[in-house]
Amino acid sequence: MSKKNPTIRENIRLGKLVHGGQAIAEVPSGKKIFVWGGLPGELVNVLVTKKKRSYFEGIVTEVIEPSDDRVEPEEQKSYLSTSPWQMMNYSAELIHKDSILRESFERESVSIPEWGEFETVGGITGYRNKMEFGFWGDDDGLQLAHYVRGTHGKQKVDGSILTNDFINDAAQSILQELRRLDMWGGDLKTVVIRSSKETQVVAALFMKKELDMSEFNLPSNLKGIDFYYSNPDSPASVPTKKLYSLGDIKLYDSIMGKNITYDVMSFFQVNLPVFEKALATIKSKLGGLPIVDLYSGVGTIGIPLGADTLVESDESNIKMAKQNATGTTTKVIHATSESAQEYITEDKILIVDPPRVGLHMKVIDRIAEVKPSQIIYLSCNPSTQARDVRLLAEFYDVSYAQGFNFFPRTPHIESLIVLKLK
User: Fold this and answer.
1) How far apart are CA 162 and CA 422, in angstroms?
2) DSSP secondary structure code for residue 264 in this structure
3) In this structure, are 49 and 105 located in the same domain?
4) Do residue 282 and residue 392 come from a single domain?
5) CB of 309 closer than 8 Å to CB of 303
6) Cα 291 vs. chain centroid, distance in angstroms?
7) pLDDT in tens, 293-333
8) Within 10 Å of residue 123's Cβ, how many Cβ atoms?
9) For position 228, which CATH number holds?
10) Do 116 and 153 sit in the same domain of this protein?
11) Is the entire prediction scored with pTM above 0.85?
12) Is residue 184 within 8 Å of 170, Cβ to Cβ?
C-alpha cells in the first residue's frame, strides 16, 4: 500500500475478466478486488473507489506490465464511462465475452452440448442508435457529461464514439440551445437521443424541476423533443411528468421487412444489424406452432417472426405495438408477463426477452406446468438466463446456444438459448 495515498493499491496482478466487465484480483489482506481498466495478467496500480466488507472495487491508475492485448483507448479520458473495453483489441474482446458466457452456464451446472460461434456484425464503433448524456456546469458553462464508472463523479464529453454522428451532432445542438437559455446544470438530469436507420433524430430531456421550456427552439437536425420533469430521487431517465413537446418523436424502421414504429423512449434494440442477425437465427430454429412473445416491447421480435400474441406491460410500448400489429392477426395484450399466464400454453412456442432480472418465477412455474414444446430465450444478462435455464432443466434440454455482440467495446453480452421439451 502506498504511504502517500492509502486508497492506492500498488503492484496488483490482475486475474480473469468476470461477468460485469472488471478484472478480478486479490490484495495482500486476501480480499478480492474488482478492477476497471485492467486486463488479465497485467501488473497495475489501482485506485480503490469502493470498500465493502468482503471485497474492494477500483480503477487502474497505472499499468506497470501491460497485456499483449492492450490497445490505446480512442476516448482516453472518458472511455470507462460508456465503453470500458476500449483498452483491448477486438479479437480479445470476443474471446473474453465467449468465456464469460460459457462460465455463466457452467456456474449454474447447465449442460450446453455446443456453443455457436460468438456472432458479430458491422462496426465496433458508431453502432448505437440511442445514447444518454448527463450534464455538468462549470466555469466554461453547461457541458455534456458522463458519470465516471465506479464513482459519483462526472467527466465532460463532447459525444461518444459508440454512437453515430447524427446523435452526437444533435447532442451538441441541444446543448447550445440550453446554453442560449442560460440553463443551469444542477436543474438538468439527462438527455436521451435516438436515431433511425434513415438518420432521423429525436430526443427527450429530463429535468429536476418543472422548468418552462416554451422558448426552446427545435434544432434543425432534430425531428422532435419531449421535456420531462423527473423526480430528483428517481433514476436519471424516468419520466415523472411530461411538460412540453416540440415536433414529433416517432421514428420508423424496417426489421426483416416489417415496418416498426417506435419513439425516443420505446424499448428498441440499439444495434439493429446484429439484432437482425439474431432474429434470422431465431427464425431458422422455430418449429411450426403459433408463437407467443412475452416482454415484447413494441414488437421488434414478435412481429417480424409472425407471432400470434404479444404480451407487454409498458403502456407506451403497447401503443406502438398495436400500431405495428395493424394489418396482421397478431393480438397485443397489455399485461405483465406473470399476470398473463393463460397465454403460455403447450400448443405455442414461447419467445422471451426479459429485462436483466430474468424471468419472473410465476412465468417459470407456468412453463413447468404446461410445458410448451419450445422456448426461445434471448437475454441481455447471461447470469440470470443461466439461472432460469437451470430451473427448467428438469423438463428441457438446450438444443441451441449462441452469444451475440450487440454492444462492442463494452462488457455487455446478449445470448440466445433454444430450449426443447424432453
Assistant:
1) 42
2) T
3) no
4) yes
5) no
6) 25
7) 999 999 999 999 999 999 999 999 999 999 999 999 999 99
8) 11
9) 2.40.50.1070
10) no
11) yes
12) no
